Amino acid sequence: MVDIENELRHCCTAESDALMNAPLGYLNDTALQRLVPAEAIVRLESVSKVYPGRHGAPVSALDGIDLAVPQGSVLGVIGRSGAGKSTLIRLVNGLEKPTSGRVIVDGADISALPERALRHARRSIGMIFQHFNLLSSRTAAENVALPLEVAGYDKAAITARVDELLSLVGLADKRNRYPSELSGGQKQRVGIARALATKPKVLLSDEATSALDPETTRSILDLLSRINAELGLTVLLITHEMAVIRSIAKEVAVIDAGRIVEKGDVFDVFTRPQHPVTRSFLADETGRALPPYVADRLRPEAAPGTQAVVRIGFRGPHATDPVLARLARDLNIETNILAGSVDEIAGRPCGTLVIGVPEASLEKTLTFLKHYGLDTEVLGHVA
Amino acid sequence: MSPEMIRLLAGATGETLLMVAISAGLGTLFGLPLGVFLATSGKGELFAAPWANRVLGVVVNATRSTPFIILVVAIIPFTRLIAGTSIGTNAAIVPLTVASTPFIARLIEGAIREVDQGLIEAARAFGASPLQIVLKVLIPEALPGIVLGLTLAVVSLIGFSAMVGAVGGGGLGDLGIRYGYQRFMPEMMLAVVVVLIVLVQALQSLGDILARHLNKRIRHA
């Protein structure tokens, strides 16, 4: 017999969920770290950015942004083009100055630093770009060496560091190739090695995988995850692809029209999106969209002969619970599976199941599911 | 052709090469920083100085719009001040340099403006100073374009150097005018033209090869 009370006690927060109920594989350092609030290494405090308009009216790119990136985390900012995410990431290394508000990186107010101090501060903030931005006149090794030359390292130190970095990104054998002789993925690896050259504490990723094919994207994201885990480097990335967020970020901020409309743990935002913009980004994710044969016949009111359509959200350890079997066994309610998927987000399992329930059993079913800590949503009724 | 003619031709070729080499060298010396400044001092750029940029732009355009033969005559007092005389090969170097500097500056400005803005952003992002960006990013990346521009400038200078013959400068132009035209020696005129064609062809090929060698944007087999 299942002890519902005991189950419920464990369900108070996502964190404790992951810790107490997760199979061992999911009980990683990240879950433990999350219990201790980490110091924010990047902090934006009510930051606004207004550009002087070309024809009189000023254009507001960012409006009252508050954002904290905890030390050692991977935070993804997602937004449509023109939402202000490029401006946001450029504020962090001072390529853009805020119109108002403060940008604090590693304790220093980037927005107030004089030029010389800002250049010095930038050595501890690496950046990678959508179009890689490598010098065509320099080989892979020479490109990686450039930030070190600029920082005034001596030749021997540069050679040693460049070798180390090229090995880290898996390009030791391509050191003397020019960018024109490298593939897109290899160019981005050189970009990453260059960004890491001066041992930064923060890595900014500006749509770093948007110009790459899906397979290359995955390998670059894996590399970024590895760097985050092994070097403890904090990563702030901007993207317009939800897939990037789900595979690498631990926290996400959704930006729309210059404002952050939703932010939080990636798992929470993916499984319980609140804002319409977030939902539209998630619309293409598997299992959220209703199949057309259900969607077309869906009506808002119950009628004789209809059954209720219920979406069940399985989060964390419950994703693999045999809930429907229990429903049938314990309450003798037979359900009809209409759509569903089980997936893994931010390293934690989650699932969506859309079922048809006899109208008479709807209340009992919802109560039963809520007891298991599952999210339920009645989408409508279908004949 | 008589040995005397060959001797004259060789001497004149040497003078032309000397004039062109020195004026191209000086023109690059002055034109490179001027071109870099023109390319980086616009509004919102690395060394933003929009007013200086505009004033220099006007000066450069004014010099370039003056026909060379008029420039030569117009700056005779300046030539005398620098070279001590206004006649001869050495004196000719002064107007050649004055004419080539703004020309080279514009060519270098063009080559530098071709460099991807993303590279400047990347360099700023890893903490490079504006001067470091110019020396380590802009000039190396623009080098193939700069070499092609300088080749064009040298070829133009060969043409200009023939004109200074008209005001007592030496070189192939002077030889062609005095012997070929004024002494009715068509074979000398022909020889001068042939030497100039060979010279221009050789320099252009050299410039093309060098530029191609420097251009790493294209995959070499």
UniProtKB/TrEMBL annotation, chain B:
PROSITE patterns: ABC_TM1. The chain crosses the membrane at residues 17-39, 51-76, 82-105, 146-168, 188-211. Residues 13-207 form the ABC transmembrane type-1 domain. Keywords: Cell membrane, Membrane, Transmembrane, Transmembrane helix, Transport. It is a multi-pass membrane protein. It is found in: Cell membrane. SUPFAM superfamilies: MetI-like. PANTHER family: ABC TRANSPORTER PERMEASE (PTHR30450), D-METHIONINE TRANSPORT SYSTEM PERMEASE PROTEIN METI-RELATED (PTHR30450:SF1). Belongs to the binding-protein-dependent transport system permease family. This is ABC transporter permease. It comes from Microvirga puerhi.
